[in-house]
Specification:
The chain is an all-alpha fold. It is built from five helices and no strands. It starts with a helix and ends with a helix.
């Protein structure tokens, strides 16, 4: 199955091939044809720049094993579009320099050419800046995700530690309960033994007293 990134690549290849062909025609075209070619080229350049922005977003969804290769391709496409933009500006400037202008419309076309050149260059630089900003944003997202993963891991470890501590406390409480019951049993036995000793002692004293009394009576 063709991925979305590969689909963008195919569209980009068609656009750049069209731009290249129209730049080749620009030098040999008449005034009216030139205006149409210029309009087509600039529209296609803008479409190619938008495709590059979409490709830059899509490359983040590519599996990690292929991501670096896609990034390298994207850098090549950016460089190619910038080269085509400069070729277009050069072809248009050379043609305009060689022409004699017979109408106000042609002269006006020359006057605005510098603005159009600058706009194209600005657009190309904007694409590069946007790409760098997106890459930086993606790097921040990855770092944030890694930090979040580490925090979750730490929380999971702490939860396990708390569970183990709670289990040990429960076992300790049970041991203390058993010890308390044992101590209570020992205390009860000790009390019982003291009572028995007291009764035995009392009986002995009574028996001794009775024996003495009977002895004196005789």
């Amino acid at each position: 199955m063709v991925s979305l990134f590969e689909n963008y690549e195919q569209q980009y290849s068609v656009l750049t091939a069209d731009i290249t062909a129209q730049i080749g025609l620009l030098g040999a075209s008449a005034t009216k044809d030139r205006r149409q070619l210029i309009s087509n080229i600039e529209r296609h350049v803008e479409e190619a720049q938008e495709l590059l922005e979409q490709m830059d977003l899509e490359v983040r969804e590519v599996e990690s094993a292929k991501r670096q290769r896609c990034r390298t391709k994207l850098d090549c496409y950016r460089a190619e579009l910038k080269r085509l933009t400069l070729e277009y500006i050069k072809a248009r400037s050379i043609k305009q320099g060689a022409l004699s202008y017979d109408s106000a419309e042609e002269l006006n076309d020359v006057r605005i050419s510098s603005d159009q050149k600058q706009r194209l260059l600005d657009n190309s630089e904007k694409v590069e800046r946007t790409g760098r900003q997106l890459e930086e944003g993606y790097r921040v997202v990855i770092e944030t995700q890694e930090i979040g993963t580490q925090v979750l891991q730490n929380l999971s470890d702490q939860r396990e530690t708390i569970k183990r501590t709670r289990s040990r406390l429960r076992e300790t409480d049970e041991e203390l309960g058993r010890s308390s019951r044992l101590m209570s049993s020992m205390i009860m036995r000790s009390i019982q033994q003291k009572i028995v000793l007291f009764i035995v002692g009392a009986c002995f004293i009574i028996a001794l007293s009775v024996g003495l009394y009977l002895g004196f009576s005789k």
